[in-house]
Design a protein that fits this description.
The two termini are 14 Å apart. This protein has a six-stranded mixed beta sheet with strand order 14-18-13-17-15-16. It is 28% helix and 19% strand. The chain contains 16 helices and 23 strands. The chain folds into two domains: 249 residues, 3-Layer(aba) Sandwich (D-Maltodextrin-Binding Protein, domain 2), CATH 3.40.190; 245 residues, Dipeptide-binding Protein, domain 3, CATH 3.10.105.10.
Length: 613
């Protein structure tokens, strides 16, 4: 699941323009996007900022973006749910058991549940969903690695699901949880779309599902509207409606929060967070970061069959050059200057939100900021400097010039990319910053048409999905289909350990195997972890219950999930809340703010401040 952090504050005139637009009222918003209207005509509405990644597709079999997965977690059921203890708890499955040989898992499925169209929700739906992912390459696009060890999935009766595995699989209760892994879909709806699954958009509203919410509408790159499921088995939402509004620029979201037109933002940047800490009517909180931000290097893009693809610079196939680049990056400066200290220097591939999987290099093995050593490595490898200071690749006589792909709709890249370009120039590597939309960048990623890319991911409490991104099985086929790779990494030793860690039921033993995998990734220098950012949130003081769990001594909450946050959100006593009669106005205003923010971003980008998400 791709995480795209929210951009930093734009210049003061941009924020002023956004605020001015907010004051225009309905008449001034005639050119804004058409408003959405919940299916009900009364009740209270919770308005949240959608994850800034947005929605790549409403098809849960092919989606990657966090914005999509937040919606899937809200509208589709899963076998289990991650509780406040970070462990799987009952959801569709009320209980589960494992055979003595660790190869067969039996889940007891709740009786009497129905999909939103009234059809029975049974174990057969779960079996059909998992079997489709196992047997259909397109269906396995997003989550195929999670079922790669399955040998069979059956539903002998409506309340029993049986999963048999090829090898023991210790993480099986994590493979179907809200937001983080596989959603269960209704067979009677989806079976007619299998033949054209790759192109199916799943945009017939209201979408048939079962969860705390039902998706009633969606406007591309603008918003999603949802209605509460008042009979939800884990407890009804406290709000009647939910609007997830996309803001490609978080200053627009902050303006909406300040003016009372938005209730919740997860992932505000450090500058905004500091200003909101003292804002009237706003509550700010921190939670443990469950993701990383870093730089991917293309080590030579290949398909599963070993066929070379893409336009990546062949110089990056040299591990010496990749190590020199790693040593040229001053990660602490990025932590201090870019995220204002709200986070930590990145090292291991798994985030600090899940401490049992945190890995750090041993003493003497750290890749610390050392440009002198980086230059020494390149000198010794024969990369001589030209008259302009740029080194020459000894294998083809060409200057070392690398493209740095960044997201054009997120200003974290704007802050990071000049640093990276300057640091690489200091070791004799020219960098061309190449802003792309999120869609274009992710499209190029799978084709291998890049040298270096900024990227970020989030991960749930089980490490298999995140580690599986680096599996050989996630490479595309020769036609460019399938795959979920982020750096075309494929290593036999790593592959063996990936399978091994799933078979280990002793936590300490499994953690040791995962540590070995993280060291392999660290030494390969294909994913350079810049930092792990603390999640910063801002909530209207009219809403309570958004943060779950207990904060630590530093007042930092455990990692949060949109599933629980939106389900537990409660209107403050005495607050009438926003009625659905105002929903059209809210969406229209927010859509207009998005347009203004995006326009200003383009201006900044053209002036050289390329931005990222």
């Amino acid at each position: 699941m791709v995480l795209r952090q929210r951009p930093r504050l734009l210049a003061a005139p941009a924020a002023a323009a956004a605020c001015a637009l907010l004051l225009l009222g309905p008449a001034g918003l005639a050119t804004s996007a058409a408003a959405a209207t919940p299916s009900s005509t009364s009740g209270k509405t919770l308005r949240v900022a959608m994850d800034s990644s947005g929605v790549d597709t409403l098809n849960p079999f092919t989606a990657y973006f966090n914005g999509s997965y937040d919606i899937f977690g809200a509208i589709y059921p899963t076998l289990t749910v991650i509780g406040q203890d970070g462990r799987p708890n009952p959801y569709l499955a009320t209980s589960w058991s494992m055979s003595s040989d660790h190869l067969t898992w039996t889940f007891k499925i709740r009786k009497g549940l129905k999909w939103s169209d009234g059809q029975p929700l049974t174990a057969a739906d779960a079996a059909w969903t998992l079997n489709l992912i196992m047997t259909n390459e397109v269906a396995g696009t997003a989550n195929g690695t999670l079922v790669s060890n399955f040998s069979s999935v059956t539903a002998p009766d409506p309340t029993t699901l049986v999963i048999r595995t090829k090898q023991p699989q210790s993480n099986l209760t994590y493979i179907s949880t809200p937001v983080y892994s596989i959603p269960i879909v209704p067979e009677h709806i989806w079976k007619s779309h299998v033949a054209d699954l790759k192109n199916y958009k799943n945009d017939s509203f209201p979408v048939v599902g079962y969860g705390p919410w039902q998706l009633t509408g969606y406007k591309t790159d603008q918003y999603a509207t949802l209605d509460a499921n008042k009979s939800f088995v884990l407890g009804a939402p406290k709000y009647d409606h939910l609007i997830e509004q996309l803001y490609k620029n978080s200053d627009s979201a902050v303006a909406a929060l300040r003016s009372g037109q938005l209730d919740y933002i997860e992932g505000v940047n450090a500058t905004e967070y500091s200003s909101l800490k003292h804002a009237s009517g706003v509550t700010t909180t921190q939670s443990a970061g469950n993701g990383w931000t870093g730089l991917e290097l293309n080590p030579g893009a290949k398909t599963r069959s070993g066929k070379s693809i893409g336009t990546g610079n062949p110089a990056l196939t040299d591990p010496t050059l990749r190590r020199a680049i790693a040593l040229s990056i001053d990660k602490q400066t990025l932590v201090t200057k870019v995220i204002d200290g709200y986070g930590s220097v990145g090292q291991g591939y798994l985030p600090p939100a899940w401490p049992e999987w945190v890995w750090k290099p041993s003493a003497g093995e750290e890749q610390t900021y050392d440009p002198a050593k980086a230059n020494q490595l390149l000198d010794q490898a024969g990369y001589k400097r030209g008259a302009n200071g740029i080194r020459i690749n000894p294998k083809n006589g060409k200057p070392l010039a690398l493209r740095l792909g960044i997201h054009s709709d997120d200003s974290y890249d704007a802050a990071i990319s000049p640093y990276v370009a300057g640091w690489l120039k200091a070791i004799g590597v020219k960098v061309e910053i190449d802003p792309m939309s999120m869609t274009a960048l992710n499209s190029d990623l799978g084709k291998g048409d890049w040298d270096m890319l900024m990227d970020a991911w989030t991960n749930g409490p089980d490490p298999t999905y995140m580690l599986g991104i680096q599996s050989c099985t996630t490479l595309p086929d020769d036609q460019g289909n399938g795959g979920n790779t982020d750096a075309f990494f494929c290593n036999p030793a790593y592959e063996k350990l990936l399978s091994q860690q799933q078979t280990q039921f002793v936590p300490a033993q499994r953690a040791k195997t995962v540590d070995q995998m993280e060291k392999i990734l660290y030494d390969a220098d294909v994913d350079l972890m810049f930092y792990n950012k603390t999640m910063l949130t801002a909530t209207s003081s009219k809403v309570t219950g958004m943060n779950t769990g207990t904060p630590d001594a530093k007042d930092v909450y455990p990692a949060q999930s949109s599933f629980w946050s939106y389900l537990k959100a409660t209107p403050k006593a005495g607050d009438s809340g926003s009625s659905s009669s105002n929903v059209g106005l809210w969406v229209g205003i927010a859509a207009a703010v998005v347009v203004v923010g995006a326009g200003v971003t383009v201006v900044r980008r053209r002036s050289g401040a390329d931005d990222r998400e």
